[in-house]
Specification:
globular, ABC transporter substrate-binding protein, 2 domains, signal, Solute-binding_3/MltF_N, single chain, SBP_3_CS, D-Maltodextrin-Binding Protein, domain 2
Length: 293
């Protein structure tokens, strides 16, 4: 997964994007409201926590997973979901902004309890952490309506990505290498620190397309007032989850809390508020294994 330019301020005025792709968003989605839940005693009893706080390391902006609103609050569907998980376990939710590269080490050192920052659950990360999977998502390309792009035939085009995401490392760069192997023009890759600025590159015409995680792509399109649209199918779907210490008691407790949210409909309600209605998990899982399996 993932991991600004002065140009952004100019583009906001030029395109009247209602703040859709800036590092600070003006508001949460229309109709959004914070969903609070009550603690479930049997799930709370599974938790061994001395301070009564679930601290969650996160790295905004990565809308709609997490970003800052106009008041500087860290918001997003992953924050809403983590809060509900914490409340179900009888804990207070506390987001902790960190550099992305420091989130997992902070969990290992005990500085934070959990990581919630658009983490892809993969075999390499499972060696040291467990993942409470909460969503399946893949890679989605975005284009301008007046400039159609085929993600499977992109040789010679310019494609924007967020630096070090799977879109860059596993999608666009391999495709560019294949173009060269076929004697065609390579793909020009524009790598940005945030997905917001990668989307801006498409809007301004600096890039022909954006490759991003499917929820991120959908968020950018939904907020772009018709100036961008998705193209091609979602591919390379993978589970996304909250990271916790390997073999810790927090993993089963958080998974039980997520299962409770699934059973009560709160899980789907939270994601729906953020425009996410695809890729929802049917059962709580740890490392892609159902907790009751």
């Amino acid at each position: 997964m993932k991991h600004t330019l002065p140009l952004a301020a100019v583009l906001l005025s030029a395109f009247a994007l209602t703040g859709c792709v800036t590092n600070v968003e003006p508001a949460v989605p229309d109709g959004w409201q914070q969903i609070d839940v009550k603690a479930v005693p049997e799930i709370a009893a599974m938790v061994s926590d001395s301070d009564g706080i679930l601290s969650v390391g996160t790295n905004p902006p990565f809308a709609p997973f997490q970003f800052k609103d106009s008041e500087g609050n860290i918001v997003g569907f992953e924050m809403d979901l983590a809060r509900a998980v914490a409340q179900t376990m009888g804990l207070e939710f506390k987001p902790v902004q960190q550099d992305f590269s420091m989130i997992l080490p902070a969990i290992s050192s005990g500085q934070t309890d959990m990581g919630g920052s658009g983490f892809t659950d993969n075999e390499e990360r499972r060696k040291n952490y467990d993942f409470i999977d909460h969503l399946y998502a893949g890679i989605q390309w975005v284009q301008r309506p007046d400039n159609p792009v085929d993600p499977n035939n992109a040789c010679g085009l310019t494609v924007a990505v967020q630096r070090t995401t799977v879109s860059e490392t596993d999608d666009v760069r391999p495709k560019s290498e294949e173009c060269l192997a076929q004697g065609k023009d390579e793909i020009t890759i524009l790598s940005y620190d945030t997905a917001d600025n990668a989307a801006l590159a498409v809007l301004t015409g600096r890039a022909d397309a954006l490759s991003a995680d499917s929820p991120v792509a959908a968020w950018a399109v939904n907020r772009a007032d018709g100036k961008m649209e998705t193209t091609g199918e979602i591919f390379d779907a993978a589970p996304y989850g909250f990271a916790v210490p390997k073999d810790s008691s927090l993993g089963p407790a958080a998974a039980a809390a997520l299962q409770h949210l699934i059973d009560t409909g709160v899980y789907a309600e939270i994601l729906h508020q953020w425009g996410i209605d695809e890729g929802l998990v049917e059962h709580a899982m740890i490392n892609e294994r159902p907790i009751n399996a």
